[in-house]
Design brief:
Layout (H helix, E strand, L loop, with lengths): L4 H19 L6 H8 L3 H13 L3 E4 L5 E4 L8 H9 L22 H16 L4 H6 L4 H7 L9
Antiparallel strand pairs: 1-2
Helix pairs in contact: 1-2, 1-3, 1-4, 4-5
Length: 154
């Protein structure tokens, strides 16, 4: 699985908004978001347009304006952010996994693609921005992290 720069930047910026929510510090400007995580400002603006369209962030105008989360950090999953900026979690040649069909020896391949999507959902949809910000990840994610080969390249 390739995690795009859009997703990486979006999650990092959303974590800053989650931190601002937790501290009660108010809206955060694009410039602040870009500076704090060393992200390209123009790219971040485009990402935030997608986040705003999906109601994950709200913009506030004015001298102290900027962005805030569209709902509490505990109610925004990493999967929500992923889908808002990059589309579905899993696609096969532009199709959803359950829409694929193969013949012959590959006839069972759609089942594997659906299982891959389900495993992505298990991790990304069950982990909220609040969980990620505090490091209190869901039990299943913690279990995956402690697997003997979890941190090894293959």
């Amino acid at each position: 699985m390739d995690i795009s720069a859009r997703v990486d930047y979006a999650v990092r910026a959303m974590l800053i908004l989650a931190e601002a929510e937790a501290s009660g510090s108010g809206p955060v400007s694009i410039d602040t978001l870009a500076t704090r995580q060393e992200l390209p400002r123009k790219f971040l603006e485009a990402i935030f347009a997608d986040l705003r369209r999906n109601d994950l962030v709200l913009s506030r105008r004015g001298a102290r304006g900027g962005y805030v989360l569209g709902r509490p950090a505990s109610e925004v999953s990493v999967g929500d952010v992923f889908r808002a900026v990059d589309g579905p979690l899993a696609e096969v040649r532009g199709l959803r996994p359950h829409e694929t069909a193969y013949q012959g020896v590959a006839e069972h391949l759609p089942s594997l693609w659906v299982a891959v999507r389900a495993s992505l959902r298990e991790v990304l949809d069950e982990t909220s921005l609040a969980d990620l910000r505090t490091g209190h990840l869901p039990d299943r994610v913690q279990q995956l992290l402690t697997a003997p080969d979890a941190w090894e390249n293959r």
